Amino acid sequence: MNAQESTFAAPTEPHVMQTYGRLPIALSHGEGCQVWDTAGRRYLDALSGIAVNTLGHNHPRLVAALRDQVGKLIHTSNYYHVPLQEQLAAKLCELSGLTNAFFCNSGLEANEAAIKIARKFGHDRGNTNPAIVVFEKAFHGRSLATLSATGNPKVQAGFGPLVPGFVRVPLNNLPALEEALAQNPNITAIFLETIQGEGGINPAHMQFLKDLRRLCDQHDLLLMLDEVQCGIGRTGKWFAHQWAGIQPDVMPLAKGLGSGVPIGSVVCGPRAAKVLGPGNHGTTFGGNPLAMRAGVETLAIMEADGLLDNATQRGGELKAALEAGLAGVPGFVEVRGYGLMIGVQLDRPCGALLTQAVEEAQLLISVTADSVVRLLPALILTREEATDIANRLVPLIKRFLAAPAP
Ligand SMILES: *Cc1c(COP(=O)(O)O)cnc(C)c1O
């Protein structure tokens, strides 16, 4: 370790509310999958702001488009037509096969809209006490409704009473789901992440997704797939459910859609698209021209540069390198995921790896569900960078697993 690396020290923030456990660095600028901190140290970014910076940092075409947009209009309000909304909605519908989009500013807002759609879908059918099926280990956000839908007691602790109207079942367990439907005639929707992100990179099985589609059709329920983290090309398809060849009725999106500019959307098919009407829902910032331009450009650049294929190729290489490097190492369980949404399951809590990755390997990663190392690099990742992530991470994990328990 050189002298510079020994100087990690958390900046003091006496005025910022202490809601995050932060690493002891502050980032100043980036280029592609590289970022630099305020002390001049360079990192390989294998997290891209938690699946947000789809195009990496400082993408020349995105930056030019955003500069152009800032000089024209940033915000107008939804009192007026916003032509870029229709442009982005049309593109999302073309890519998903769905029919209409609503725009907001974040993942939880997209999920709030989905929950409101599910409830009103029930009310429209004379069901004044609608319920929504949700899943164990789910994460849908931190507003009261979305934390109530979330299946993590740590997210809910201290904020009761929870919003009622959610029925929880285990993921990938069809009999449990059928039982819940049989017991509760008020259920109007089934709501899940196509691939659970915060819960530890747990994919809904393809057959389970097909079964859900069939059950929703049979029982007149909405299938609502939270693709806030796994959507927008992350898994090598535009949307993760496309691997299973099905379509949802309601699909919340956010994180990667604006490549760093805050944005959210709920995209709906014909059964859900007309549930909300004038006066039922809205947001001041949602659908503003800057965010819409970011979405339009992100999708156009992804298409022009073949980033879905890149996610599949680089993700395959990264997974293979991690599996090869960790095979047989005591404490390593498995590598999971699709494309560039990858989890490395260990047999023990490994939060300590976050700091070790920063300080000893100049690598930005995340640890979720206590014992899963999560990798969500930008979709522009090169082959060399995929190899580089594995070359930095494998020795780190090996050293961590070999160390005696603290
Ligand atoms: C991040 C995330 C959310 C919440 O998004 P915010 O923008 O943080 O509100 C919801 N659902 C999933 C699947 C997520 O990964």
UniProtKB/TrEMBL annotation:
Gene3D superfamilies tied to this protein: Aspartate Aminotransferase, domain 1 (3.90.1150.10), Type I PLP-dependent aspartate aminotransferase-like (Major domain) (3.40.640.10)
Binding sites annotated in the UniProt record for N(2)-acetyl-L-ornithine: R142, T283
Keyword terms: Amino-acid biosynthesis, Aminotransferase, Arginine biosynthesis, Cytoplasm, Pyridoxal phosphate, Transferase
Enzyme nomenclature, EC number: 2.6.1.11
Modification N6-(pyridoxal phosphate)lysine occurs at: K255
Subcellular location: Cytoplasm
Main location: cytoplasm
Gene Ontology cellular component terms for the protein in this record: cytoplasm
Note describing how the cofactor binds: Binds 1 pyridoxal phosphate per subunit.
Residues the entry annotates as binding pyridoxal 5'-phosphate: F139, D226, E227, V228, Q229, T284
Source organism superkingdom: Bacteria
Keyword Nucleotidyltransferase attributed: no
Pfam name, any one: Aminotran_3
Pathway given in the UniProt record: Amine and polyamine biosynthesis; ectoine biosynthesis; L-ectoine from L-aspartate 4-semialdehyde: step 1/3; Amino-acid biosynthesis; L-arginine biosynthesis; N(2)-acetyl-L-ornithine from L-glutamate: step 4/4
NCBIfam families recorded: argD, PRK01278.1
PANTHER family xref list: ACETYLORNITHINE AMINOTRANSFERASE, MITOCHONDRIAL, AMINOTRANSFERASE CLASS III
Complexes and interactors: Homodimer.
Note: May also have succinyldiaminopimelate aminotransferase activity, thus carrying out the corresponding step in lysine biosynthesis.
Name of the protein this chain belongs to: Acetylornithine aminotransferase
Organism taxonomic ancestry: Bacteria, Pseudomonadati, Pseudomonadota, Betaproteobacteria, Burkholderiales
